[in-house]
Amino acid sequence: MLYFAYGSNLDPDQMRSRCPESRVVGLAMLRDHRLTFPLYSEFWGGGAAGVSHAHGSTVWGVLYELSDDDLAKLDQYEGWRGVGDHHNLYDRDTVTVELTRPDDGSVPRRVRAYTYLARTLNPTPPSRRYLDVVLKGARHHRLPPEYVEALAAVEVGSETA
């Protein structure tokens, strides 16, 4: 199954440790959304990424192919317990993304993929440590330079963890 990563799961080392069977399909963009930090993470000591509707904005990320085992592991990491569970930190839902630079040489196309949508609980600026992981992944996958610059300009909070 396909998964659209836009936050710390852009980091190839993190994805390899969380989902060892995952395979990068290519770069993708989620139109009419913007990157937000709606959820406080004790692990990261600041805000964790989410996306929200924003006409005309785009969130860039990476499309992965996941095995069933990888998806189950990712559900645990993302705090998703099941459909409709009120304890979910993120809801797993499908979105339509535009695969813009497929790694397999295929033609760019629109595809449906799972992603995790943070519930707005406690909007908080990300920690420097978290943002650096997102930036590491964005640079590794060569997301568009203007998008990487916008990520680098995100104001960080002080780490509390």
Automatic annotation (TrEMBL):
Gene3D superfamilies: Gamma-glutamyl cyclotransferase-like (3.10.490.10). GO terms for molecular function: gamma-glutamylcyclotransferase activity; transferase activity. Pfam families: GGACT. The active site is at E78 (proton acceptor). It comes from the Bacteria. This is Gamma-glutamylcyclotransferase. Keywords: Lyase, Transferase. Residues 3-120 form the Gamma-glutamylcyclotransferase AIG2-like domain. Substrate binds at Y3, F4, A5, Y6, G7, S8, Y130.
